[in-house]
TrEMBL record:
Keywords: DNA-binding, Transcription, Transcription regulation. The lineage of its organism: Bacteria, Bacillati, Bacillota, Bacilli, Bacillales. This is LysR family transcriptional regulator. Gene3D superfamilies: 3.40.190.290, Winged helix-like DNA-binding domain superfamily/Winged helix DNA-binding domain. It comes from Brevibacillus fluminis. Pfam families: HTH_1 (PF00126), LysR_substrate (PF03466). GO terms for molecular function: DNA binding; DNA-binding transcription factor activity.
């Protein structure tokens, strides 16, 4: 029984859907010759297709006369049932073609996240046919401005207040670390406090840096003022100045776990408040859902 069913289904799928299109066009034109012109087929080729359909279903589909053709009751039934089926097959074809095409999401983020958090996730997204166009800026404020201008579809940045029209999902918390030379006596400690950091010279990024702003607010909340000895531009050379002995730096955890100099060491900051939240901010639910499959 199952073998007979398989053979029957195979015969249906072997039937070219063009035959059904030819059948419907012939029914509309009520003429083999007129339908063949519309279909770019010769009359004998069109007649052969119709005869194959009639042979398959075991019944005549058209009444034939010198003036043209008319549908038989069997032909009327087939025309009625096959049109929605062909429409559905065409829709499936369009959807499958869309699946083959890569989806593109414009994503903005910060340098530390671009270097240490996103690479594996972007590769996973691309293997799922989602192309990521990555934009990196040194501050969350700059990335958020691009998002508001709709130059980005989504952003992975430090959590900031946003308009209710945007979608926000917190991804993870990132603690801050103090980075100093391995020769510094402080490296023997398991943690360093904000009060200790307030007494040492600090090498920091410019005032618009989101890390600097967050650290400044945290220290102020604990009654401390950072002693900034040097401001440097954005880039890995901040830690180069620390390695050269200019002072200590305060960096996010992802940076602390990937120090570029062997003579540097990261020490966790003692206070629980010394951290930031990294969030996914997006314009649409579809982009949020696609990204969260790999970011959550």
């Amino acid at each position: 029984m199952y073998d007979r069913l398989y053979v029957h289904q195979k015969e249906v799928f072997d039937m070219d859907t063009d035959y059904f299109d030819s059948f419907l066009e012939t029914a509309r034109q009520k003429s083999i010759s007129k339908a063949s012109e519309k279909l770019n087929l010769s009359p004998p080729a069109l007649s052969k297709q119709i005869k194959r359909l009639e042979s398959y279903y075991g019944t005549a589909l058209f009444y034939r006369s010198t003036s043209g053709v008319e549908l038989t009751p069997s032909g009327e039934l087939l025309a009625e049932r096959i049109q929605p089926l062909l429409h559905e097959l065409a829709q499936i074809q369009r959807e499958m073609q869309a699946c083959r095409q890569k989806r593109r999401i414009r994503l903005g983020t910060l340098p530390s996240l671009a270097a240490h958090y996103l690479p594996k996730r972007i590769l996973a997204l691309e293997s799922a046919a989602i192309e990521i166009e990555l934009t990196v800026r040194p501050t969350s404020t700059e990335i958020f401005a691009l998002l508001k201008e709709e130059k980005l579809d989504a952003a992975v940045i430090e959590r900031i207040p946003v308009h209710k029209s945007l979608r926000v999902v917190d991804l993870f918390e990132e603690h801050f670390y103090a980075v100093t030379r391995t020769s510094d006596p402080l490296v023997k400690a398991t943690t360093v406090s904000l009060s200790q950091l307030a007494e040492v010279p600090l090498v920091m990024y410019p005032p618009n840096c989101s890390v600097r702003k967050t650290v400044g607010l945290i220290m102020a909340a604990h009654g401390h003022v950072p002693a900034i000895k040097m401001e440097v531009g954005f880039g890995d050379f901040l830690l180069g100045f620390v390695a050269a002995g200019a002072g200590m730096a305060i960096v996010p955890e992802l940076v602390a776990l990937h120090l570029p100099h062997a003579d540097l060491q990261a020490i966790p900051i003692k206070e629980e408040a010394a951290k930031r939240t990294i969030s996914l901010i997006s314009h649409s639910a579809s982009n949020e859902k696609a990204l969260l499959r790999y970011f959550a």
